[in-house]
């Protein structure tokens, strides 16, 4: 009780100080007339954060009110808090702080990339909980073409977006009507930990607008955990592949997983090997072309090192 009483005045002083630091111009607002405060007014912070003026006033006054993580995040965005300041805000408000999982999972290290490359000709990919594609190997890229939508702020390829927005004949999954509901329900199982987070809410909104089928499946509310499953893929050159997907956790990347696809039967094994041979021949044929493209650069480099007398 004594700790709580001490933290509340600290919270009030911290919020007042950070509010004074943000000007109306910083958030795209006109300064207006007769402004007596150097920064934002309380009602402006409340409006920009999507909370009630009275509630925010009480929070800044250090009154004993409850604050959720979502509301604190909204206030932190309005006040332009960096990560240490955001964590400090959480502690003062006595709300458990969770590190930014999205930011921690953006980059796949060389060790993980090396592992999935070594799995070739087995297709392998690193997904986060939203099915963003964080790393792939060549075999996976043979199975999936992953466009990045223009209106997605993250600019990260996403397998759900690809599967829901391509015409059915171009979809690499054969049994799309049974596979896609499973994937949406898997993502829904992770969504509970991210409710209210802008990157999740924006993704769900724009994919729902782009795909009525996704919107329908999302509204169903079905939830299932990730797990090993058999999927059938189609490839324009070698035909269908029955593959078993296995998910592996990635240490240091919360909610991310390596998914590896292994042939489920002898015919799929043979076709996977055939696909690998096709890629090898194609890569060998492309090497002379790449060398011709690089030759002018090498010549220029030699001339720069050995200028004519």
Spatial strand arrangement across the major sheet: 2-1-5-4-3
Gap between N and C termini = 84 Å
Major sheet description: 5 strands, antiparallel
Strand content: 5-15%
Count all strands and give the number. 5
What oligomeric state do these chains adopt?
single chain
Helix- and strand-based class?
alpha+beta
How many helical stretches?
13
Mean pLDDT: 83
Radius of gyration, in angstroms, nearest whole number: 26 Å
Gross morphology is elongated
Q: Unreliable runs, pLDDT <50, ≥5 residues?
A: none
Q: What's the order of the H and E elements?
A: HHHHHHHEEHHHHHEEEH
Measured as a percent range, the helix fraction is 40-55%
Describe this structure in words.
The chain has 309 residues and is of the alpha+beta class. Helices cover 52% and strands 11% of the residues. It has a five-stranded antiparallel β-sheet with strand order 2-1-5-4-3. α2 crosses α4 and α4 (69-78) crosses α5. The longest helix is centred in the last third of the chain and has 40 residues, at 266-305. The relative contact order is 0.09. The model has no long low-confidence stretch (mean pLDDT 83).
């Amino acid at each position: 009780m004594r700790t709580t009483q001490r933290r509340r005045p600290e919270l009030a002083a911290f919020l007042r100080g950070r509010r004074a630091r943000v000007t109306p111009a910083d958030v795209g607002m006109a300064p207006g007339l007769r402004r007596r405060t150097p920064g934002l007014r309380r009602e402006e912070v409340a409006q920009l954060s999507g909370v009630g003026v009275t509630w925010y006033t009480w929070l800044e006054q250090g009154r004993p009110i409850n604050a959720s993580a979502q509301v604190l995040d909204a206030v932190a965005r309005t006040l332009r808090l960096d990560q240490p300041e955001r964590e400090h805000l959480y502690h003062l408000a006595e709300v458990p702080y969770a590190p930014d999982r999205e930011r921690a999972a953006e980059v796949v290290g060389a060790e993980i990339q090396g592992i999935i490359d070594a799995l070739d000709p087995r297709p392998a990919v690193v997904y986060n909980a939203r099915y963003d594609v964080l790393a792939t190997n060549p075999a996976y890229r043979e199975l999936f073409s992953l466009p990045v939508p223009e209106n997605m702020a993250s600019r990260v390829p996403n397998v759900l977006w690809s599967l829901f927005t391509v015409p059915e004949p171009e979809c690499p999954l054969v049994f799309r009507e049974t596979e896609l509901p499973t994937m949406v329900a898997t993502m829904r199982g992770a969504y509970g930990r991210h409710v209210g987070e802008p990157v999740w809410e924006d993704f769900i909104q724009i994919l729902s607008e782009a795909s009525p089928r996704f919107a329908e499946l999302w509204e169903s509310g079905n939830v299932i955990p990730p797990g090993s499953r058999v999927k059938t893929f189609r490839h324009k050159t070698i035909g269908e592949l029955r593959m078993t997907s296995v998910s592996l956790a990635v240490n240091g990347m919360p909610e991310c997983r390596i998914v590896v696809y292994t042939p489920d039967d002898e015919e799929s094994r043979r076709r996977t090997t055939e696909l690998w041979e096709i890629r090898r021949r194609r890569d060998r044929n492309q090497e002379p072309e790449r060398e011709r493209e690089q030759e002018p650069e090498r010549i220029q480099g030699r001339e720069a090192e050995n200028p004519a007398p």
